[in-house]
Amino acid sequence: MKKGLGHKPCNKHSITAGRNKTTSPMGIVCATLLLMIAGSISGYAQDKPTHSNPWAPTELGMLPPVASLAKGVWLKGELHVHSSHSKESSNNSVGKIIAFSKSVGIDFVCITDHDNHVDGDVAHNTWTDPEFKSDSVLLLYGGEWTTTRGHGNAFSAVPYDHQRLYDVRDQRDVVIGAVKRQLGIHLSANHPSGKDHFGYSYDMVNSIEVWNSAIWPKNANAIMIWDDMLSSGRKLTGRGGSDAHHGTPDSPDKATKNTYQAKANYIGTPTTWVFATERTSQAVIDALTNGRVCISSNPYAPRVEFYADINQDGKMDMMMGDNVKATGKPVKFRVQLTGNTSVTGSYTINVIKNGDKFNTYQVSGKTPMIEFTDTPATIDRTYYRVEVEGPQTAYPQVPQSMALSGNMVGLSNPIFFNFDPNF
Ligand SMILES: [Zn+2]
Ligand SMILES: [Zn+2]
Asked: Could you report the per-residue pLDDT of 213-223, keeping only the tens digit for each?
């Protein structure tokens, strides 16, 4: 066997090459080859590119405070609803919105009236409404930024100068982005594929309304835009909002042509869940920014929880919204439905990886749960998110919403690997 190895004679000669006075022709060839290889190695060292990309992703750093998996609190809310301060709304006073929210167990509400209906002065309309107070529901400060380039919601735990956001609406994105940062608000793109879709840069926003109103099927393109933005490296939270404008009249004579909507699309269709550090408005905003968020078709529908065990110790140590550096080792993921699940029906869990379907699972039982394992690439970004289809949980206060939502029960935010937190 050894005889047949072509390199054997060459090795022998190369060892002796240079020391023998009578070098064989094969020795010369070998020596030349060695010189060429040595030359190319030193040449490579000399020409090694010294370029370093100043925009390369930085090491993963700290995000706003996140809840530990053991100590957080789940809170459910409505992030897009119009009161009577929006001119096209009917029978939907601030007091009515808060009372209804309380009655269905909603923890937080952001009343997002159209700022153009009050010339940007949300602060002296919605927020100073005598009914804008609650001893049980967390009231976020916000408004729907209603511009010729589309709609976005502003969210804040404390009052802010909304007038400045309104005034800057026709400026270029770079100017608006600077004002948004100064105001310290969370800005969110509304109904991104519908009428009046958000037409500004997604660099300015912290979240995107991927589920607008009870009518789930019209959100397909919003989900596509979200996947596009995630794929481009934006760690963008997906959230819901009913965009309800019309409440139930106090007496039949107050009904309008839009009154029917109150039984089809109202507060909580869909419901946005956040996993917050504590039960405060600021913790809600932080959880929203961090993406520790899932969306359910209504306040009584089960909640989609999505976890991962990154160090194979059998304990889940990260959840949706969290972002870590991939280690190259397998990660175990867990999807769990919590709350009023149908014990007779079965749910379909669709896992999406980087915008493509990764796998589909069927689950049933009181607390349906699945686990799967995958190894995220050590280079490149990877994200996983979950959509759940199945039977709707009854929402007697908004009874027609169930049919409008079809099979869509809930969806999670992604678990991220190698995303640049500074992007
Ligand atoms: Zn809108
Ligand atoms: Zn709206």
From this structure: 999 999 999 99
